[in-house]
Fold this protein.
Amino acid sequence: MSSPRWDIVVVGGGPAGIAAAVRAAETGASVLLVDDNPSLGGQIWRGAEDNSSLRVARSWRERLKRSPAQVLRGFRIFDQPVPGVLLAESAESVREIPHSRLIICTGGRECFLPFPGWTLPNVMGAGGLEAMVKSGVPVAGKSVVVAGTGPLLLPVAAYLRKRGARVRLIAEQASRAAMLRFATAFASQPQKGVQAIGLMWQLVGVPYRLGCWPVEAKGAGKVRAVVLQQGGRRFEVECDYLACGFHLVPNTELAALLGCELRDGAVWVDDAQQTSVPNVYCAGEPTGIGGVDLALVEGQIAALAATDKPREAQQLHQLRARHRAFAAALQRAFALREELRKLPCPDTLLCRCEDVTFHRVAKCQSWREAKLHTRCGMGPCQGRVCGAAVEFLLRWNIESVRPPLFEVRVESIAIELTVGPTPQVSQGAEG
Amino acid sequence: MPEIIHVSVNGIAVAVESGTTVAAAVLQCGISSFRRSVTGEPRGPLCGMGICFECRVTVDRLAHAKSCQTLCTPGMEITTDE
C-alpha cells in the first residue's frame, strides 16, 4: 500500500521516541511514530498508560496525544529497501514507510549472561519479569530472587514487592566500593538521590547484597533455587522466579543496517544527535545507555535538529551534558566484574535459539566463524541475546547486521515498492 | 474495572483481564514451559519485550507468535508445545 512521504519518522515509542515525535510535530512537520509493541511507553514507561504515578510519563503522553503526530503501533521495522523507505511488519500486514528524515529511538535491552540453568523456565530478565507482571502475570506470594547488576534491580524489586511477591534477595554484582563512589554522583543530581532513598525505603527488610551474583539456577522443568556467590562463599536460595539481568545494552541493529557508524557498541552521533548517515538521527539508549532523563533530552535535540531548529536544540545541550555525566558514572559503577567471564561452564548453552554450547562457540576465532560453524546467533533472535554475552565473555566485536532484522513472512520480503527513495537522500549517496 | 475476556490455553478456558498478554495468560494457568527448544528443552519467556523469541506459542493455529507482545482477544486459542 502506498503512503505519503513523512517529514520525520521516529522509530521506537519509549521516552526518547515520544519526546522526539512531540517536539518534531509541534514544529508543524508531518511526523509518524512507529513502535513494535501494542502500546507506547517503551520498557520504562510500560503499563504507565492508565492511572500512572509517573508524572513525567503522563505529561509526555498527553503532549503526544495533543500533538498532530501520527502513531503506528504493533509494527516492527525489518528492512530499508532503498534510502528513505523503511519496511514494517505487523501480525497481519506489511507497510512501506517513506520519509525524509529518520530518528532512531530503538532503546536498549537487558544484557543476559549465560550460567548453568539460565535457560530454565521462570528464569527471566529483571526488566523481563517486571514487564511480564505489568502485562498480567500474578506474583503475589511468589518467592523471587532479583540478581545481576544495574540501576534497574532496585525499582524492579520494589515493584515486584508492591505486587505481593516475596523478594528473598537482591544480589548486585557491583562491589561496595564501586557503589560508594557512585553515590557521590548523586551530588549533581539530587532528585535521583531522593528517588534512590525512596526505593531503599520501599525495600526495607529485603536482603541486599553487594559483590554477589548468581552462578547456577537449579530445577527440573522450571527454576526451584538459585546458587549465588559472594566473596569465596556459595549459598542457595529457593525461589519461584529468578529475575536476572546484567544492566542494559543499546539496540543498534536498525542503525547498523542503515550504515550508521558504531563506536564501543553504541551509535555514534554528533552534537545534533545526527548519525554518520545524513538525515538519520539517533536518541536515547542506542547512543549509549543513559536512562530516561538523558533519553528525553536527546529525543528533543534530535527532533529540533531534524526540523531545522538548531538554536532551540542548542539550548538543551547543557542539560544533556549533565545527564551524560551521570550516565558515565552509572556505567562505571555497574561495570561487569572479571569473575563473570567465567560464569558459563563448557556445556552451558550460549545460544538459546539454536542450543549451542559455550564450549563450541569459544573454540571459534570470531563471531562470523561461530555463526558459520555452530549456527550460534543464527536463530530467530539473530544474536540479540547471545551476541551481547559473547562481546563480554569472549571480547568479540559484533557489528554485522543484515536484512531482514527479524524473521518475517515471505510475503513481507516479496513486497513490491510503490515509492522510490527520498530524492534528497539518494542524490549523491552511495549504494 | 477492566473488562474480562475469555481465551483458551491448551483447550482449557481461562478468563483474563483485557490488556493481558498471551504470555501472562499462559503463566496464569501455571504453565512455565511455553515451547521446546531445538534439542527438546523446555523454555519460557526471558526478555518480556519481544527480543529473545523464547516465549513463542501457537495462537489461533498460527505458530511462532511472540506471546509477550500479543494481547489476548476474546475466543483466542493458545497452544504451548508439549
